Amino acid sequence: MRFAITSLLTALFAAVAMAVAPVLHDVIISFSEDAPSELLEAAKEKVRNCEGAVITHEYTIIPGFAAKVPEGCFPDIQALSIDYPPTIEGDGIMTTQDKGGVKVGI
């Protein structure tokens, strides 16, 4: 009986360890000023539907938003429009000095 419980717990732990969360990238997704507002809303909806993704900030000065997004969502967002393609760029702290080669974004 004790062996069965130990085996069950080991199998459960292995299953949980294998279910690793996707790597999320900090990005800013923006569109040109003349892009339809529906396109921005569609991009936000795509991000909300991606597993693990979250919108961290919505901008009012530019048509865009910041988000943490898994790499697998990028093609869906890029495919929203050919006429008004989104700009997807890494989000992070920018400096004028080298900080030891810290990589920012995607």
Order of SSEs, N→C? HEHEEHE
Q: How does CATH name the architecture of the domain at 22-90?
A: 2-Layer Sandwich
Fraction of residues in β-strands:
15-25%
Ends distance: 50 Å
CATH topology of the domain at 22-90: Alpha-Beta Plaits
- Overall, the morphology is flat
Query: Mean pLDDT, as a whole number?
Result: 84
Indicate the structural class: alpha+beta
Weakly predicted, low-confidence segments: none
- The CATH class assignment of the domain at 22-90 is Alpha Beta
Sheet of most strands: 4 strands, antiparallel
Strand arrangement across the biggest beta sheet:
2-3-1-4
InterPro entries: PBI_I9 (IPR052471), S8pro/Inhibitor_I9_sf (IPR037045)
Keywords: Signal
Family: Belongs to the protease inhibitor I9 family.
Signal peptide: 1-19
Tell me about this structure.
- The chain has helices at residues 2-18, 37-49, 74-78; strands at residues 24-30, 54-58, 64-70, 87-90.
- It is α+β, with helices and mostly antiparallel strands and 106 residues long.
- The chain has a domain at 22-90: Alpha-Beta Plaits (2-Layer Sandwich).
- The protein has a 4-stranded antiparallel sheet, with helices on one face.
- Strand 2 (54-58) and strand 3 (64-70) form a beta hairpin.
